[in-house]
């Protein structure tokens, strides 16, 4: 017998939608069947263990990353769309390896909302956040699950987050064909300001650092997620900017998602999510 799957809309007061065709899921929590097949060791992510992570391609090449937040919306970085035509992009959802697209949902983008206060300099991007609307909703499954949003103004200092993506494996190297992951450490504001980037930092940004590990080109827009005590991942950051890739002198800088929870909800009205 199929398990009834409850989908709730992001705002209280909008109707609930019930589906009898999809397995039950919770935001930020990979299905038990996926977790049971985890591979131990290495930098390769266990297949579909981060089922909210998506690849955004341009001309069939890895362009940027993002995260499923509703069945119709992808959370990404503003700079991923500011200077590029989203109509030329394709979103791969439920992807593990670019060498096997069996079962992967392919979508185009019908609209993009970039934060109205997004600004960019030669060094950094500020209010670097965007919502991409898919041309057609996806159905949640074992391999497609939305990420949980943090509480407004929630702090993650000194936590150990994970980044995952198909970006370059080095500043002068090609993009990965398989989903890679890395564990970092979120720095406190004081620790972040101790680096040479301090003059470019804003309270809406967080820093994460680990020797030899970082996001790189192609990972931009992807999620920085933290595992919570309730067994779910929440999105703490969006890969935004940095100097080089894994340069020990500079941490990676991420958009602080908890500063934008209300903004995200306003721009994802009508999208459905798993139950919280």
Automatic annotation (TrEMBL):
Residues 39-269 form the Peptidase S1 domain. One of its GO terms (molecular function) is serine-type endopeptidase activity. It holds the Pfam family Trypsin. Residues 1-19 form the signal peptide. InterPro entries: Peptidase_S1_PA (IPR009003), Peptidase_S1_PA_chymotrypsin (IPR043504), Peptidase_S1A (IPR001314), Trypsin_dom (IPR001254), TRYPSIN_HIS (IPR018114), TRYPSIN_SER (IPR033116). Keywords: Disulfide bond, Hydrolase, Protease, Serine protease, Signal. SMART domains: Tryp_SPc. One of its GO terms (biological process) is proteolysis. The keyword DNA damage does not apply. The keyword 4Fe-4S does not apply. It comes from the Eukaryota. This is Serine protease like protein.
């Amino acid at each position: 017998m199929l398990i009834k799957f409850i989908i709730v809309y992001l705002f209280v007061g909008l109707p609930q939608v019930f589906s009898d065709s999809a397995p039950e899921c919770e935001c930020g929590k990979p299905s038990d069947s996926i977790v049971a097949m985890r591979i131990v060791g290495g930098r390769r992510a266990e297949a579909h263990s981060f089922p909210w992570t998506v690849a955004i391609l341009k001309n069939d090449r890895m362009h940027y990353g993002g995260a499923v937040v509703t069945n119709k919306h992808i959370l990404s970085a503003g700079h991923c769309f500011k200077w590029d035509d989203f109509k030329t992009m394709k979103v791969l959802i439920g992807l593990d390896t670019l060498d096997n697209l069996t079962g992967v949902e392919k979508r185009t983008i019908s609209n993009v909302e970039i934060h109205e206060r997004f600004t960019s300099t030669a060094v950094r991007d500020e209010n670097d956040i965007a919502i991409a609307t898919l041309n057609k909703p996806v159905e949640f499954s074992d391999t497609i699950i939305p990420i949980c949003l943090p509480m407004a103004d929630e702090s993650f200092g000194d936590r150990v987050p994970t980044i995952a993506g198909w970006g370059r494996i080095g500043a002068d190297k090609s993009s990965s064909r398989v989903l890679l992951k890395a564990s970092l450490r979120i720095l406190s504001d004081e620790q972040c300001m101790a680096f040479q980037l301090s003059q470019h930092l804003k309270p809406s940004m967080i820093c994460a650092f680990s020797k030899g590990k970082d996001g790189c080109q192609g990972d931009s827009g992807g999620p920085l997620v933290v595992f919570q005590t309730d067994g779910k991942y929440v999105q703490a950051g969006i890969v935004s900017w940095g100097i080089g890739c894994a340069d020990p002198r500079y941490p990676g800088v991420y958009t602080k998602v908890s500063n934008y929870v209300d903004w995200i909800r306003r721009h994802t009205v009508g999208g459905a999510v798993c139950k919280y």
